[in-house]
Amino acid sequence: MSIKVAVIGMGQMGTHHANNYRKIPQVELYACCEWNDKRRAEVAEEYGCKVFKDYKECLADPEIDAVSIVLPDNMHREAVEYAVKYGKHILLEKPLAKELEDGKALYELTKDYDKVFTVGFLLRYDYRFAAIKEALEKKELGDIIHIYARRNSPIVGPRRYIGASDLSMHVMIHDIDYINWFMGCKPVSVFAKGRSVLLAEHNMKDVIYAIVTYENGAIANLEACWVLPENSPTIIDDRCEIVTTNGVAYVEPCDKGIKFVTPQKILYPDSRHWNYVNGLPQGDLSEEIMGFINCVANGKKPVVNVGEAYLALQVVDAIERSMKEGKEVTL
Ligand SMILES: NC(=O)c1ccc[n+]([C@@H]2O[C@H](COP(=O)([O-])OP(=O)(O)OC[C@H]3O[C@@H](n4cnc5c(N)ncnc54)[C@H](O)[C@@H]3O)[C@@H](O)[C@H]2O)c1
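# nicotinamide-adenine-dinucleotide complex -> structure
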C-alpha cells in the first residue's frame, strides 16, 4: 500500500518537494495545497492530484498519511498544530518557526508525538557535512578549536521573504544547525553584529556576523549575507573551515563540480541541493525526503529531531538579542 502525501505551499521549495515525492515508487503524491489561485491551477494541471486552497481542509483529509509543510517561515506554527491535530507524519521545512515563542510551543507539542516529526535541515543529508561529522565522531580530526562558516547569496532571496522572515532564521540557521551537530555540546553565549543597508526599508538585515561559544570552549564564527548582486555566478557562496587539534576540514566555496564560462556570464550551477538529472530531482533535498519516507514506512528515527531544531532557533534568538542589545548574551 502506498503512502499518501500532501505538500502544503507550492512555491519554490514546495515544488521541489512534490517532484521528489513523485519519483518515489512507494509514495502517492495525493494532494497539494496552495493559496495563490494562479499557482494552484498550474499545480492541478501539472500534477493531476487533488488540490486545496485552505491547508486546514487539506490536513483534515483522512486519506493523507504524511505532509511536507513548505509555507513561509512565519506560518509554520499553526500549520504544524493542525497537522498534529489530524495525526499526520510531518516534514517541516526549516526553520522550526520564525519566533522563539512559536518554536517553543512546537517543541512542547511534538517532543513526544507518536508520528514522525522532522525539520528540513538539508545539509545533514549533504555528503560534505556528513563526512566531517563522521571524521569528528571517529576522533580522526581530534577536538574542535574553532569553526568558520559563511553563507552568502544574491538579493533575489530576501525580496521574496519580505515580512515573513529575516537573515538569521532563514539563512544562518543552516550553519547554526550543523555546527551544533558537529560540536556535540550546548552553545552557551553569542555576540553578534548586523547591518541593514539595501534591505533597511524592509526592516531586514543585509549581513550578520556572529560568534558563538560552546560548552567545550570551542568558538564558531558565522557570516551570512543575502544582498549579493542579482547576477552573482552562484545561488549559494558557502564555505566552512573546521580547525581541530588534529587538522582542518574545508568545505570549498563555489566548487559545485561544474562551471560554465560564456561571453555573457560565468555560472556555477547548483549541483548539491535540488538539481535535476533526466528530469528527476537529485541532491541533499532528495536524500532528506527519502529519509522522511523511510521513517514513515519503517518506523526509523528522523536524522533531525525537534530538540535540535529548537536549539538552532534558540541560537537565532540569542543572535537577535545580541544585535539589539549590542553585547554578548547567554542562551
Ligand atoms: N532547505 C532550504 O535550503 C530552503 C530553501 C528555501 C526555502 N526554504 C524554506 O521553505 C519554506 C518555503 O520557502 P519558499 O522559498 O518555497 O517560499 P515561496 O514563497 O516560494 O513559497 C511559499 C508558498 O506558500 C504559499 N502559501 C502562502 N500562504 C499559504 C496558505 N495559507 N495556504 C497555502 N499556501 C500558502 C505561497 O503562495 C507560496 O506559493 C520556508 O520555510 C523556507 O525557509 C528552505
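# post-check
The first strand starts at residue 3 and ends at 8.
The chain is about 35% helix and 25% strand.
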